[in-house]
Amino acid sequence: MFTIDTHTHIIPKHLPDFARKFGYGEFITLDHHSSGKAWMMQGNKRFREILENCWDPQVRIQEMAQHQADQQVICTIPVMFSYWAQAEHALEVSQFLNDDIASTVQLYPDKFIGLATVPLQDTSMAVKELERCMANGFRGVQIGSNVNNLNLHEPQFDEFFAACEALGAAILVHPWQMMGQEHMSRYWLPWLVGMPAEISRAICSMIFGGVFEKYKNLRVCFAHGGGSFLPTISRIEHGWDCRPDLVAIDNPVNPKDYLGKFWVDSHVCDHKMLQYIIDLVGADKVVQGSDYPFPLGEAVPGELVRSAPLAAETKETIMGTAAKSWLGL
Questions:
Q1: Taking the CB of residue 22, how many other CB atoms lie within 10 A of it?
Q2: Binning pLDDT at 50, 70 and 90, where does residue 43 land?
Q3: Neighbour tally for 126: CB within 10 Å
Q4: Residue 180 burial (CB count, 10 A)
C-alpha cells in the first residue's frame, strides 16, 4: 500500500558554529566522531548521538525501501527550533535548516516532502519565513508545543495561524522544552512523561483558546498520537462541564466536539491504543508517523499499522490517504 511517513527528522550534515558567530547560546553543533556517527553537541554537552540516516538522503531512501515507505515528510529536530535565541538569529538558523530541506526535496521530489521551521518568538519573522518556504515547495511547518513557555493560544500567534490557513500550510505540532523537565531529569522522564503531557497542553490550549474556532480551515497534526490528550479526553470534558468558570472562559464549545477536526500520528506503540485513537478521531485523521530515525521512534516504521488487526481499507487510509489530506496533496 502507498505509504507516507509523516513524522521524520533530518538535519544538515554540517552546521555552522552559530554560538561563535552570534556570541552567545548553546546552539547545536555536530561532532562527527567516527564514520557515519555524530554527537549533537549543545555547548560542551552531548545532547544525542545520531547516525548518517539523520543527514544522508541516500541512506534514508535505502532504509525507506526496507520499511516499505514510499515517501517521508522531513522536518528538523525540535532542539533546533531555537525559540530561546534572539529572533534575527533564530531566523538565520531556520533559513539554514530550511534551505537544506529544500535541497533534499529538490534532489528527490518523489521521496521527500518538506516541513519548515520558523522563529516563532517573532511572529512577523515567522510568517515571512513561512511564506518563503511555501513559495519554495514546502507543504507546511513544524512548530513546538509551546514557545518559551507561552501556550499556542496566545494572541501573538494569531497572525501566524492566519498565515498558515491562508497559505494552506499543514502544521505538525511536536513536543519540546517539556514543562517541569528540570524536576524530573532521571529515568528519561522528560521524554516518557513530559512529551505526552506537552502535546495535551498544546491541544487543550488551541481548543480552549479558540484557535480552531478562529481558523476553521487549519490542518493541524499532533505528534505521538496526540500524547496524553486522547487517553484523558473524558477527564478534560468533565473539567469543561463541571468548572466552565475556569475552563470555558474563552471558548464555550465542548472539547469533544473537536475530535475528528485535527490529525494525530500513529506512533502510539500499541495496537489497542491505535484502535482507541481511531475510534475517537476516525481513521481519516490518523497518519502513519514513526519519529524516524530516533530510538524512541517506531523500531520498524509502519510495522504497528501493518501488523494491526485492522481492515485493509483502514490501513490504506492511515498509511497514505489521511496524510495526503493533511498535507493538501
A1: 17
A2: confident
A3: 27
A4: 12
Output the CA–CA distances (angstroms, integers) from residue 9 to 1, 188, 304, in the order listed: 23, 20, 19
Please calculate the CA angle 296-151-176 and round it to the nearest 5 degrees.
20
242-249 mean pLDDT:
97
Q: In sequence order, which residues have a C-beta less than 8 Å from that of residue 6 and are 6 or more positions away?
A: 73, 172, 221, 265, 287, 288, 289, 323, 326, 327
What are phi and psi for residue 273, nearest 5 degrees? -70, -35
pTM attached to this predicted model: 0.96
Closest CA to 173 of 145, 213, 147, 139: 145
Residue 30, phi-psi category: left (phi > 0), alpha (psi -120 to 50), beta (remainder): beta
Q: Are strands 4-9 and 28-34 parallel, antiparallel or unpaired?
A: unpaired
User: In the 8-state DSSP scheme, what is residue 182?
Assistant: G
- Residue 114 contacts by C-beta under 8 Å, 6 or more apart in sequence? 73, 74, 75, 98, 101, 102, 104, 105, 133, 137, 138, 139
SS3 category, 186: helix
Predicted confidence (pLDDT) per residue in 64-100, tens digit: 999 999 999 999 999 999 999 999 999 999 999 999 9
Q: Counting beta carbons within 10 angstroms of the beta carbon of residue 318, is it exposed (0 to 12), middle (13 to 18) or buried (19 or more)? A: buried
Q: Length of the chain, please?
A: 329
What radius of gyration, in Å, describes the C-alpha atoms of the chain? 19
**Could you give the count of Cα atoms lying within 13 Å of 227 in the half-sphere of its Cβ?**
25
Cell of 283: 481513521
pLDDT of residue 190: 93
Partner residues linked to 71 by β-bridges:
4
Strand 140-144 relative to strand 37-42: parallel, antiparallel, unpaired? unpaired
Is-contact 292 9, C-beta < 8 A?
A: yes
Distance, CA of 171 to CA of 149 (rounded, Å):
19
Q: What is the pLDDT of residues 136-158, one digit of tens each?
A: 999 999 999 999 999 999 999 99
